[in-house]
Amino acid sequence: MSQESFIYSFVARGTMILAEYTEFTGNFPAIAAQCLQRLPSSNNKFTYNCDHHTFNFLVEDGYSCCVVAKDTVGKQISIAFLERMKADFKKRYGGGKADTATAKSLNKEFGPIMKEHMKYIIEHAEEIEKLLKVKAQVSEVKSIMLENIDKALERGENLTTLADKTENLRNQLRFRYWNFRNLRYSEMNEGKGEDSRV
């Protein structure tokens, strides 16, 4: 990945950009700001494509992190950058400073930090991709295991139901056996009674 892979980034509270960073000129800050205005407020990740660039957003607890990247940069790499930037921002400003900061007032402090995060992600993109693949595989295995556990529990319920039905059948057979036995006993007694009269 080249240094031009990430073009622009910002952190915003609501629709107010608190800190931004770029080394390039262009209309991407305006497009990113327009996208920010349209973002749902729910915690989520969003990606918009425009002019061979991706506008990637991570929204959490009223704050939005954005990175504009070339469309050749994988979405997972952009999200990894956003996660890293969000964690650092929360660590530095989570105690309330971000809640009262004015527009672009954190540029001097956090702008150079965003630059460092961009540089780190670009330099370690290959390792990050491998790590993300491993995480995806672990997540897939976890999902399969949970599905298998659900099936086993379902079978367990079926076994419980089968055991209950077996017990009911056993009780019915026992009842019928005793009824049959009593009937035979009654018939035998009746038969003996008739023989004694003859």
From TrEMBL:
Residues 130-190 form the V-SNARE coiled-coil homology domain. PROSITE patterns: LONGIN, SYNAPTOBREVIN, V_SNARE. Residues 10-114 form the Longin domain. It is found in: Endomembrane system. Gene3D superfamilies: 1.20.5.110, Longin domain (3.30.450.50). GO terms for biological process: protein transport; vesicle-mediated transport. It is a single-pass type IV membrane protein. Keywords: Coiled coil, Membrane, Protein transport, Transmembrane, Transmembrane helix, Transport. GO terms for cellular component: cytoplasm; endomembrane system; membrane. It holds the Pfam family Longin. Involved in the targeting and/or fusion of transport vesicles to their target membrane. Belongs to the synaptobrevin family. This is Vesicle-associated membrane protein 724.
